[in-house]
Amino acid sequence: MREDLLHFIWKYKKLQLKGLQTTKGDAINVVSVGTHNYNEGPDFFNAQLKIGSQLWAGNVEIHINASDWYAHNHEKDKNYENVILHIVWHDDATIFRPDNSEIPTLVLKDYIPANVLANYQQLFLSGKQKFINCEKDITSVDSFLLQNWLDRLYFERLEQKSAVITQLLKESNNNWEHVLFVLLMKSFGSTINGDSFFQLAKNIDFSIFKKVSVKPMQAESLLFGMAGLLNNNDILDAYYNQLKAEYVFLQNKFGFTINDEVSVAFFKLRPTNFPTIRLSQLSALYAEHQALFSKLIKAKTAEEIYGLCTVVASAYWDNHYTFGKQSKQSKKRLTASFINLLIINTILPLRFCYSKYIGKNDDETILEIISSLPEEKNSIIDKFKTQKVAISNAKDSQSILQLYKHYCKKNKCLQCGVGSSLLSRNG
């Protein structure tokens, strides 16, 4: 038995409400179960219960064993002095308040319908090791309920991504353009160089980058130089040496230095993801759009964002992936699949935060944009598809990733819309 099941049963009234009695035989009439508390203190605040002939308002605490009250030292905690009902599975101790009055106790196992326990057994305890607890039953959940839950999960994911944005805003004195730059840098770094690019962006004085961004070569020289990519004196390459000279000029002009060394990687990367290519593409993006933040915030469709982000690395990279080594001729253009990742991981989370900041609801447009993108491809999405879960766009795949990471993997089925539905089934 798990304590969160008892929380679920009480919160959603999945018990026989008629005939409820305390262990002393006093009738319990539930006026309000209270507000579920996920932090320290009693499990439910501001419940209203009629116990016997007395109407009580206060808190409710839930334990597997009544003796857990003392095991958790609640008798020494003032937060628990206003508990009006102690709900337990096993009544193995009598609990008293500081004034020696007994706290009424409800033994929940005496009032739980058999189907709820059977569904619980099916969800958590049956069979061999499973990918997810509900893998045999998830497709039986009402499609309308499932879709609403996935929509909620998508915005929950945006809320979680807001934490990084909020911190960056604090560090930059609410400079949204700077925050966009840092987030874009992280996305351009992808998995291998994401953290390095993120730190690199924080090391760069954005006001300087903004001034030089009108000239792609100057922007490239600043990014390459700060990334430590212009330190090789053995490269005999005209463009490389131009960038080095430009970087020295910028250092002298603006007086900046490298305070934190950042190491970027080429190993295990496809050439199109090399940091040289990505930094040049980012430079091109800013050279083409001086009001990039404003344009991305105002875009109403994914197609508009594609139009803004479809840029090409500078001409040198047409036949190079690294300095001094020629390669087959090809334009290093940002692809639609890469732009999709920018939209998913940077642009829409930033729009979500900005809309809240200015007090304007942008949820409908955000949903329209994310729903117009193809679903992501990874092993988790593939496994859910194997379970016959319909995943048709990026909103679905983002929601599924949130579901798996924050509910399925943590066995939080009782806080999940799918698990709650399955536990409530009859028969």
Q: What tags apply to this protein structure?
A:
6-stranded mixed beta sheet; 427 residues; two-stranded antiparallel ribbon; alpha/beta; single chain; DUF2851; 16 helices
Helix content: 40-55%
Overall form: elongated
Count of runs of 4 or more consecutive helical residues:
16
What proportion strand?
Answer: 5-15%
Count of all domains: 2
Number of strands: 8
Uncertain regions spanning at least 5 consecutive residues: none
What is the H-and-E element order? HEEEEHEEHHHHHHHHHEEHHHHH
Computed over alpha carbons, the radius of gyration is: 29 Å
> Average pLDDT, to the nearest integer?
95
Q: Which structural class do you get from the secondary structure elements? A: alpha/beta
Instruction: State the end-to-end distance.
Output: 21 Å
Major beta sheet summary? 6 strands, mixed
Task: Describe the 3D structure.
This protein has 427 residues and is of the alpha/beta class. Helix content is 48%, strand content 10%. The protein contains 16 helices and 8 strands. The chain has helices at 3-11, 68-71, 114-125, 143-171, 176-203, 206-212, 216-226, 238-254, 275-288, 292-298, 302-309, 336-357, 363-371, 379-386, 394-408, 417-423, and strands at residues 28-32, 35-36, 44-51, 54-65, 83-90, 105-107, 320-322, 325-326. Strands 1, 2, 3, 4, 5 and 6 form a 6-stranded mixed beta sheet that branches. The longest helix has 29 residues, at 143-171. It is elongated, with a radius of gyration of 29 Å. Pfam families: DUF2851. InterPro entries: DUF2851. This is DUF2851 domain-containing protein.
